[in-house]
């Protein structure tokens, strides 16, 4: 199946496993002749003896070619955009809904309003529970929506598979959308305590659906390409230049475009819903996302026989935990530095491989390659440990920054419209980075690795909070309400300070660029470094870092009031800067391992649901993969 195919045929799991098991061979004389005729190699090519050709005639790079040829991305199949469209609809529904949460909880119903609408000059509101309650519930929603991916990933990998789990998530999320909608209809919204109870119930279903969906949709889109193109291949450009089509770079491009679709959905949802709440009412701002969400099951149903759907793999999480315990037996220590060093020890993991264990325990039904995959997955999870620091900054977009906006001159613009600068910036800069910046960096031979990108993301997040702190300082200085700048009654009586809400623009633009470097790259890292039969679960662990950050964010709730907002932003800026420095010095060594980690031989272990090849065939395949890795310098 060529990379240029417009679609992807459905492939049974057994066929995927057979295709993946076929390894390239050293080329014979006829293949050398064919390569010369096609112009892929020349008579003067001194590396012909080491050329590796795959089962479908594709040429794999040698050690010399890996070091010298320029790397580029391959073709992105059209069918992958259907998955991106599903995510677009889900993100429209999600962001359109949560965009109005703050106003819905914080501000009371405007005088005479039964829907929460306030017209051009008023402030939309409904429940009137204040800034701390709004901050706490927004953080709870974020926590709940991001803790669920870990469970959704486990269910997908173990029992249902990604496709079935996504469809379950759609059903549950739809129920959540409907319950939240009910809390906002006239007659219910006017009874704030009743509306709050219904709203909180809706948040429970909403978060479960969001979490189960989120952890599976991104691996689903990436594995469509990975299943067809698991290895780097040599390709001749129309100009005659020989390059390497790198699957990791292609998956990176897929995630960039996938994230572009996310922000098309987010932007559409956020902009339209804030005007819906302001001029019509909260019932409309919750209804429209629900309608948009209904497109997701239609697309998934249409493509059910077109997607590659890998089966669940049963007890792999249990086996992974047992393997880690087996490898670390006698090596546990309370000294964190020594513990990290031991987990990273080559000798420790070599001794845990089945081929090195004389009396294998019953759980050890996997091969040596799977042990390497688990070790690589642990390294990825180590990278995720620092991400809650970044999420603390990122989450201010739907919390403190919206409150900050409500205290300045809006000029008829809803206070929760300004944070749409984030998706607008992403829609501008994602194509620029995808088409111009990243290719230019690659042409110069620079490796802008995931570790470097995430480090840059931390730094830009810190800068955005510095800007927010400066803005907040001048709000307190210029506000007629002084240190009580968020007091709605005071603002109504004396007016806001002489500051336009659009001075928040630099903070949103910078945090959006940091999002490209952190969020997109971390998603890519979770997929490419996870064991092949645990990708949903490891992606769920990545999203769990946001949930953990939301829990940490509860500690900042006491700072989410006057006159302490300046300290809130300042402390977040300092924490993010320290996180940047600590992250780089902790993980800079992984840059040197990037190629080796991506080139690990693929395990044949499929868990309880699958089967493992006979020992003789397994040993032969393992030896062949070792030979290829040796030829490529790994």
UniProtKB/TrEMBL annotation:
Region feature (Disordered): 31-60
Transmembrane segments: 136-156, 168-189, 195-213, 258-276, 282-303, 383-403, 423-442, 454-475, 507-528, 540-559, 565-587
Alphabetical UniProt keywords: Membrane, Transmembrane, Transmembrane helix, Transport
Membrane topology of this protein: Multi-pass membrane protein
Coiled coil: none
Biased composition (Basic and acidic residues): 31-43
InterPro entries with a match to the protein in the record: MFS_trans_sf, POT_fam, PTR2_symporter_CS
UniProt cross-references to Pfam families, sorted A to Z: PTR2 (PF00854)
Nuclease found in the keyword field: no
GO molecular function, one term: dipeptide transmembrane transporter activity
Annotated localization: Membrane
Domain of life: Eukaryota
GO CC terms: plasma membrane
Family named by the database record: Belongs to the major facilitator superfamily. Proton-dependent oligopeptide transporter (POT/PTR) (TC 2.A.17) family.
UniProt name for this protein: POT family proton-dependent oligopeptide transporter
Source organism per UniProt: Exophiala bonariae
Top-level taxonomy: Eukaryota, Fungi, Dikarya, Ascomycota, Pezizomycotina
């Amino acid at each position: 199946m060529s990379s240029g195919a417009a679609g992807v045929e459905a492939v049974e799991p057994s066929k995927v496993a057979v295709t993946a098991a076929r390894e390239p061979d050293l080329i014979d004389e006829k293949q050398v002749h064919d390569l010369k005729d096609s112009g892929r190699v020349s008579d003067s090519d001194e590396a012909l003896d080491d050329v590796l050709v795959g089962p479908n005639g594709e040429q794999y790079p040698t050690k010399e070619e890996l070091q010298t040829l320029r790397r580029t991305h391959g073709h992105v199949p059209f069918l992958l955009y259907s998955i991106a469209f599903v995510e677009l609809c889900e993100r429209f529904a999600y962001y359109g809904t949560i965009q109005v949460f703050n106003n819905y909880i914080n501000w009371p119903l405007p005088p005479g309003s039964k829907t929460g609408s306030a017209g051009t000059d008023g402030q939309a509101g409904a429940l009137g529970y204040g800034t701390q309650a709004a901050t706490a519930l927004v953080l709870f929603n974020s926590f709940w929506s991001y803790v669920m991916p870990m469970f959704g990933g486990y269910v997908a990998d173990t029992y249902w598979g990604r496709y079935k789990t996504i469809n379950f998530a759609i059903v549950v999320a739809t129920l959540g959308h409907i319950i939240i909608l009910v809390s906002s209809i006239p007659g219910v919204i006017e009874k704030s305590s009743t509306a709050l109870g219904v709203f909180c119930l809706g948040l429970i279903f909403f978060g479960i659906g969001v979490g189960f969906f989120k952890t599976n949709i991104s691996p689903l889109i990436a594995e469509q390409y990975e299943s067809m193109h698991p290895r780097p291949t040599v390709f001749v450009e129309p100009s005659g230049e020989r390059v390497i089509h790198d699957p990791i770079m292609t998956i990176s491009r897929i995630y960039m475009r996938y994230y572009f679709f996310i922000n098309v959905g987010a932007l559409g949802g956020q902009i339209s819903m804030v005007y819906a709440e302001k001029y019509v009412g909260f019932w409309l701002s919750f209804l429209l996302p629900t309608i948009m969400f209904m497109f997701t099951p239609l697309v998934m149903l249409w493509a059910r026989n077109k997607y590659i759907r890998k089966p669940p793999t049963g007890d792999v999480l249990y086996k992974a935990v047992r393997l880690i315990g087996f490898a670390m037996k006698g090596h546990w220590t309370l000294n964190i530095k020594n513990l990290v060093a031991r987990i990273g020890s080559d000798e420790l993991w070599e001794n845990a491989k089945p081929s090195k264990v004389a009396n294998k325990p019953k759980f050890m039904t996997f091969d040596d390659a799977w042990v390497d995959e688990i070790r690589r997955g642990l390294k990825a999870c180590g990278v995720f440990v620092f991400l809650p620091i970044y999420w603390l900054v990122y989450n201010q977009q739907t919390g403190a920054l919206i409150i900050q906006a409500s205290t300045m001159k809006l000029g008829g613009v809803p206070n929760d419209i300004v944070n749409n600068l984030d998706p607008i910036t992403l829609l501008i800069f994602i194509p620029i980075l995808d088409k111009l910046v990243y290719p230019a960096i690659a042409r110069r031979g620079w490796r802008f690795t995931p570790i470097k990108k995430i480090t840059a993301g931390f730094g830009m997040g810190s800068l955005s909070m510095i800007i927010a702190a400066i803005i907040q300082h001048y709000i307190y200085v210029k506000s007629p309400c002084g240190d009580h700048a968020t007091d709605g009654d005071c603002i109504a009586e004396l007016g806001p300070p002489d500051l336009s809400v659009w001075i928040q623009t630099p903070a949103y633009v910078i945090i959006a660029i940091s999002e490209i470097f952190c969020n997109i790259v971390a998603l890519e890292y979770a997929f490419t470094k996870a064991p092949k039969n645990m990708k949903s679960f490891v992606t769920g662990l990545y999203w769990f870092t946001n949930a953990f950050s939301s829990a940490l964010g509860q500690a900042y709730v006491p700072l989410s009031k006057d006159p302490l907002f300046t300290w809130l932003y300042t402390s977040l800026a300092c924490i993010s800067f320290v996180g940047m420095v600590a992250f780089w010095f902790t993980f800079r060594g992984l840059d040197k391992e990037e190629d080796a980690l991506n080139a690990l031989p693929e395990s044949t272990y499929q868990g309880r649901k699958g089967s493992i090849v006979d020992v003789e065939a397994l040993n032969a395949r393992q030896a062949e993969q070792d030979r290829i890795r040796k030829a490529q310098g790994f």
